[in-house]
Amino acid sequence: MNPTKIDLVLRNVKLYTVNSAFEVAGAMAVHDGRIVDVGPAEALLERWAPDQAVDGGGHCVYPGFIDAHSHLLGYSAKLGMADLVGARSWAEAVERVREQQRCHPTPWALGRGWDQNAWPGQAYPTRERLDQAFQDQPVMLVRVDGHAAVANGAALVLAGLDEGTRVPGGDLFQAAARLTGVLIDNAIDLVKRVIPPPDRATREEALLAAQANCFAVGLTSVCDAGIDLDDALLLEGMHRDGRLKLRVYAMLNPTEENEAHFLAKGIHVTDRLTIRCVKTYADGALGSRGALLLAPYSDDAGNRGLQLAPTEVLEDICRRAARAGYQVATHCIGDAAVRLMLGIYGRHLEPGNDARWRLEHAQTIDPEDLPVFGAKGIVPSVQTTHATSDMKWAAERLGPRIRTAYRYQELLAQNGWLPNGSDFPVEDINPLQGFYAGVARKDLQGWPEGGFQMENALTREQALRAMTIWAARANFEEDSRGSLEPGKWADFVILDRDLMEAPEGELLAARVLATFSAGEQVYGG
Predict the structure, then answer these.
(1) pLDDT digits (tens, 9 = 90+) for 87-121
(2) What domain range is 363 assigned to?
């Protein structure tokens, strides 16, 4: 029998299929963008006659990495702002904005990434330094988690905010009967709404830059956790014309426009864009003390955080999504927010369901609520780098409750699987940092020596599944991606080392050699 003509055979590799048996193979055959065979190279070359035979040089191959929770549009927008990540003080953050404006002036000065928890004293910044540096130009600088911001006086005036402004689910800090410029959660939107949006060409250029960065770190699919209709149409158009090859699972913000355009018509699935989920927010973030807790913060007596939407609104969102056959994903960080949404979800979900409704982050969970995840099939969607980013200060917020936080192994046991993402641009875009954080429970400097609450560390196999096949499953996409098996898209990444066997200290040094999407090389030489 003559071999069948196909496009590609990749051989001389250690290929982790991440199938149910976690099998390893030596070669893979690809045709029309999909995998047609996996096995020993000799057997494949007897069955298939490839137009191109690629020698993998003995390197390791993995399914294309999937970020189960990110903000692709937000990340692309951030590429044009001042980058404040790693700023060691408020003064340094403001100087970075000044430098950005000197090099790339814009009507509004925008930045993201400051974190007061990394500064001496951990005090929130105030607007005085911004007012001095930008007297007439409006400025808004968003905290690393996106749940707090500082606006200068010019921005507050344009937004029409003053000492009497109040907003449900948000806060505007004051000192001496004067706005400090600090905005928490829903208060940020009061300024955002007066910032002129970028034009379409700028947004497209930013998305292509974001795509290139994703491919460079081995990401072939991402979940964008909360987009508006114009965002969805932008993604759809760029996928259609072939410029955007990155696969996107888009969660919709619960707007009337999104409901009319998408939910009313059912789920929307193409080869590169899936829309079948509604995203909402129950609370804020732990770092800005907006996470909703059952008992007050240990370092802020009387403060239990913020519920960002009324219970009846959250109930209605779930009811409308269920009616449309859509998944629901809710941002839940505090234990009170988790309990609230488990209760709401439970009224819509029967035991044994396959609706895959998700709690995003699920960072702090009261012990009595943990079994509800398994009982109602609720998916905890976690970000392992949050644990290692928060661990130096989270105990100050939570006190003894720190033992109930970042419970990844216990959450995994509820359903037997869980997806892992990064929440970029809150965390770094590199999924290998999430792999390392999951298995080592250490920061990028290798601290703490013995790892953080290691009883909830993931095994290496679990960590790889969480960023491939389990991430795909959370998106109802496990039949088309997430593992290297016949019939699935040929989305894969080649690394310079073995994530399953390399010493722990070398994991962060792993380098992406090539990334393929639908059998096409989209990164690497």
Answers:
(1) 999 999 999 999 999 999 999 999 999 999 999 99
(2) 66-71+200-483
